[in-house]
Each structure stands twice: as C-alpha cells, then as structure tokens.
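Meet today's protein:

…
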Amino acid sequence: MAVNDQPFALLIVEDDEKLQDLIRTILSRQTTSIDVASDGEEAIEKLASGRYDIVILDLMLPKKNGLLVAEAVAALADKPRLIILSAISRYLSDRFPPGTLVLQKPFEIDKLAETVRGICAELQTST
C-alpha cells in the first residue's frame, strides 16, 4: 500500500538520539516530513509553529516533560494523532488526550511502524 500518496508530517519527541534515528529510519517510508525534538520545550515550540499529523512522544524528557507536551497537543485546534512511548505511561493514562495510542517501552519497532501505517491509512481515507 502506498501511503505516500498524501503528505504526512511526523514529529518525534525523544531525547535518546539512537532511538530518534531508529524511529526516523523505520518511518521515513510512511511519512513525507519528519521533525525531531530532543526535549519538551523544543517540542512545544515545534507544535506551535508547525502542523503535524502524528506526534510520537516519550514522557521522560528534559526541560518540559511529556505530559506538558501532551497538553500542548490537546490544546491545538488541528490535533495530530498522538503515540506515547514510555515505560511509565500505564500510571498516567488518565492524563492523555482522548485517542492517544500507547506503546510500552521497551516496544517492538515493527509495532510502531504498523501503528503509524494504520494512522496514515486512516488519515488518507478521512480526507
């Protein structure tokens, strides 16, 4: 299935550079634009100045934590789909915006790719 018929913008919010690179490499075929933020403050700035279809978010971040980033996502008029990657997310799920998808760390990278593919297909059929 060619998901790239329509442009999809992705924001990866992760402070682990190796994981950033792995996610970017694996998902580069599903999306046409990938931005990366290494901390919560940078993520909130990118969300305010850009438009994203999907945000992949770690909760344990420097400067501003992932919950503050999730709140910034929820406050957007044009809300992106949110995927949270975290070992502690099960304790905080009541603080996530509706429709948030959660992958517990450690997670299978193939599961993340499958999740993003599904969201892209859903977005493509809804436009």
Notes: Helices lie at 17-27, 40-49, 66-75, 109-126. Residues 109-126 form the longest helix (18 residues).
